[in-house]
Known about the structure:
The complex is a heterodimer.
Chain A: E1 5-6, H1 17-23, H2 25-28, H3 39-59, E2 66-69, H4 72-86, E3 93-97, H5 102-113, E4 117-121, H6 131-137, E5 142-146, H7 160-169, E6 173-177, E7 196-200, E8 211-215, H8 241-279, E9 283-285, E10 296-301, H9 306-315, E11 318-319, H10 325-328, H11 335-339, H12 344-347, E12 350-354, H13 361-380, H14 383-393
Parallel strand pairs in A: 1-11, 3-4, 3-5, 5-6, 6-7
Antiparallel strand pairs in A: 2-8, 7-8, 9-10, 10-12
Helix pairs in contact in A: 1-8, 3-8, 4-5, 8-13, 9-13
Chain B: H1 4-11, E1 24-30, E2 35-43, E3 49-57, H2 60-73, H3 78-82, H4 86-92, H5 101-122
Antiparallel strand pairs in B: 1-2, 2-3
Helix pairs in contact in B: 1-2, 2-4, 2-5, 4-5
Amino acid sequence: MGKQIYLDNAATTRTAPEVVEAMLPYFTEHYGNPSSIYGFASANKEVITGHREKIADVLGARCEEIYFTAGGSESDNWALIASAEAYAAKGKHIITSKIEHHAILHTCEYLEKRGYDITYLDVDENGVVDLEQLKSSIREDTILISVMFANNEIGTIQPIAEIGQIAHERGILFHTDAVQAFGQVPIHVDEFHIDMLSASGHKLNGPKGIGFLYIRKGVKIRSFIHGGAQERKRRAGTENVPGIVGIGTAAERADRTMEARTGKEKELRDYMISRIEAEIPYCRLNGDRVRRLPNNVNFSFRFVEGESLLIMLDMKGICASSGSACTSGSLDPSHVLLAIGLPHEIAHGSLRMTLGEDTTKEDVDTVVDALKEIVQNLRNMSPLYEDFVKKQNA
Amino acid sequence: MYTEKVMDHFQNPRNVGEIENASGVGTVGNAKCGDIMRIYLDIDENQIIRDVKFKTFGCGAAVATSSMATELVKGKNIQEAMAVTNKAVMEALDGLPPVKVHCSLLAEEAIHAALWDYAEKNGIRIEGLEKPKADIHEGEEEEEY
């Protein structure tokens, strides 16, 4: 087996060495609790503020609007549950989409059980929400619209500014799960009319276990974790200082390198897509071709099943992921692939490859060469392919 | 997550292919759930399974159980083949993760479906064999790209 080729950067990324370096002193040297009085520890308060500012700068937000959390899922849970409770007197209707991450969808189910009414917007065959349907779904009692910035599976980027504008014209809060988009595409909370935004550190070459929720000043939202006065009393618990340094450094770095990095990734992405489409028959690109994350490639290959593909790729040192049922632990394939209208058997044969800052053209060529061979081998073993070929020849 | 034997049978599946004018063919599973198995049997006049081939659409466990099932019935008579249960297939593979046990059931059903086809073609009755219930056409859609 040759070297490993990691194409699962939507799952997590390698923590950048400069990020790790920035974090290290906060484990062994500057380990003081930022809430303590003495200078050794309280200096860490300034450190936290400095990194909060870095993130605020990237988003065009104010420092005090960034609240550190343990990651994207916590941010999503907080945004939905706490704002639902805070605005319950106004109404109990929330609008979201069918292709959200489970951190949103399962939280919505939780709220449904507690008397909230949720509208799940459809998406078109490329995974884009319909703005007209959004407008017509808004009611007197709608308190929140939550639509993800970019989809984690198929990479489709939503018309966030338009959604935000619709929400604001009607006086409705707008939350976006930007876990996949933050650090990959420019985001400005005012230009996009965003009231709340979730992000995570480990998707942008930062550490795991740290994320943040942006909450626009003036948004009523209750505390999520009760206890000390950390995070303006809204999220108690001794701050994860190394994590905060990590995500701040990573955010600043991702912003600084965005243009060059994503430019290179887009080129490689489009090269990979064109090679696969030219060289592997009976495939379908999932997600929007243009409104797409710079690093996302997602294909369905007819007549083959995703888990088989993943294991075969793994044997060749290639890391990727799939929306097949076998990889989700249930009998149903990915809700995202079903929502864009794929029949079950084609959704089972999906493969997501997400490039990273270290991905090279040679990596892409190696992967496509391997993929061609593997897909053909699996098709030769597939009764669906056998039937298809017989039908073609009949 | 898979045993070495499962990985071996997945990567080097035995008896992949088709048999022309097979004595019996059985297809079970449903593309909707992500698994389809087809078994071809070549059975001689003494009711011995002379050859067996398979084709499978499915996960690693589905391919491995198909491969192992074909190995277990090859050269056996039809009564012996009937005794190849999903448990026997699983044991021969040193076990499967709990979520993959249904794959071994599918392998057993595929053998039974092929035997049923053979029995029907020859107008015989096989002790303990019931009509297969799985139907691959359910939920199957023609999708053009």
